[in-house]
Amino acid sequence: MPQTTVLEPLQADQWFVDSPDLREFVATAKDIISSTTHNRAETLNALEPHFAALLKKENWLPKNFAQSNPDSGLGGGIGQWLLYRSQDRSLTIFSLVIPPDEITPVHDHLSWGLVGLYQGKQEETVYRRLDGGELEGQAQLEVVGTYQVKTGDIYYLLPPDNDIHSVKATNVFAPSISIHVMGNDIGSIWRHHYHPQQQSVRYFRSGYSNVLFKENPHIAV
Ligand SMILES: [Fe+2]
For residue 215, what pLDDT is reported? Predict the structure, then answer.
């Protein structure tokens, strides 16, 4: 098990993409999140139409945030580009860029979230853990379902349900791009990478493609 990492608050909100559309969405999201703290399903329901409107808008995501990353922490050239992170790390927005026919590791998120397809097509395979264990080492998983996701589609992450999945880009030529709105600093926390066939699990931190990852686990990233 990794050493406990205390993520210190940041000095201020971080904007990696400066877009009026993104700023408007974040302001709305903050209002909704703070008024629905008692019920995160309600948070997701209230956020969804605003997120859908953002996904439909064009030209707010710069090309640098829509490209693959050969040095990816997720492997397969998958880019994970941080767009926005709140000062207290309780809200992050990032783009996940999966090259054609590549697939993410089977992973969890450990937070509520919304995922929306900005470009292309994906196949999402959702898993459920059968042993309920938290230990690093053994893990028994079963497939809950496999879903086809197309541009404009949105799905919910609401642990413990539907929190373990892998995502494959089913585009032939261009990468698929999904936008993630998460209730944690997902690139900086320790979470789980599963190997269903070997029935094993290990801890990992994915990092972000555009944020330096400090080696010392006690230093916040
Ligand atoms: Fe995911």
Answer: 47
Which range is most confident: 4-13, 39-48, 154-163? 39-48
Dist CA 166 CA 105 (whole Å): 6
Mean pLDDT of 99-125: 96
Percent of the chain whose pLDDT exceeds 90: 78
Q: How far is the CA of 88 from the centre of ligand 1 (A)?
A: 22
Quote the mean pLDDT of the chain: 91
Q: How far is ligand 1, taken at its centre, from the CA of residue 166, in Å?
A: 7
Residue 113 bridge partners (DSSP):
157, 182
- Location of structure tokens 């019920």: 39
The Å distance, Cα 181 to ligand 1 centre, comes to 11
- Distance from residue 113's CA to the centre of ligand 1 (Å): 9
14-204 topology per CATH: Jelly Rolls (2.60.120)
Task: Give the whole-angstrom CA distance, residue 200 versus residue 162.
Answer: 19
**How close is the Cα of 162 to the center of ligand 1, in Å?**
10
HSE at residue 130, side-chain half, CA atoms within 13 A, is 10
CA 108 to centroid of ligand 1, rounded, Å: 6
Q: What are the distances in angstroms from CA 58 to CA 85, 156, 186?
A: 21, 23, 26
pLDDT tens by residue, 128-159: 999 876 666 888 999 999 999 999 999 999 99
